[in-house]
């Protein structure tokens, strides 16, 4: 059974790989045997160093995915440095908070462009590379609980993450028969830099914990195992699925 989860010889592009969930996914894939192209605006030096200590090849690919301008270069650099692409993890994302009555066009566009537009066009570019290799591959999108729920004060984020769930399904419909598996992970409340303010708010923190059946915030490492599964042969017949890793939040 262990061989089903073995990613030896495969190359993974992970966006937003410098900290938090992106770093945890990159290192989990590396532990399973994959080489890593760590993409981000901030160089993922720590992630790459840790992946290399695991005996993997790992390279920094600098790219600001607030526009689609660097998409082609991300693919080119990954192939030039690591030889191929087998896995793409679309993790890079931003969030803007304001009441919907006051939400600005600038904040709307910034979130949609990074979280949805760049995700689609990077997926498209990577899928073309995978088809050119004649090897197929796996694409894993990072969705959200707000792919299922509405939330408050994050209209562009909710729209983008709902869009991520929809794109995951349409791309699976089109590419599954071509050997490319497309799925998504919807993290619950994970203890990262992005949620530090929520955890520091005693009232909000207590309300969140009260709803999570597991009784704790998630760790970024909790997302890593799900990514390894979806990237591996164990998930070869899983297509178009959005896997919630949320401590039971959605079941409550």
Number of helices: 8
CATH class annotation: Alpha Beta
Rg, alpha carbons: 17 Å
Label the structural class: alpha/beta
Annotated CATH topology: Rossmann fold
CATH architecture: 3-Layer(aba) Sandwich
Mean pLDDT: 97
Give the CATH superfamily: NAD(P)-binding Rossmann-like Domain
Order of helices and strands: EHEHEHEHEHEHHHE
- Unreliable spans are none
Question: What's the shape?
Answer: globular
Strand content: 15-25%
Helix content: 40-55%
Largest sheet: 7 strands, parallel
Number of domain units: 1
Strands of the widest sheet, in order across it, are 3-2-1-4-5-6-7
Distance between the termini: 32 Å
Number of strands: 7
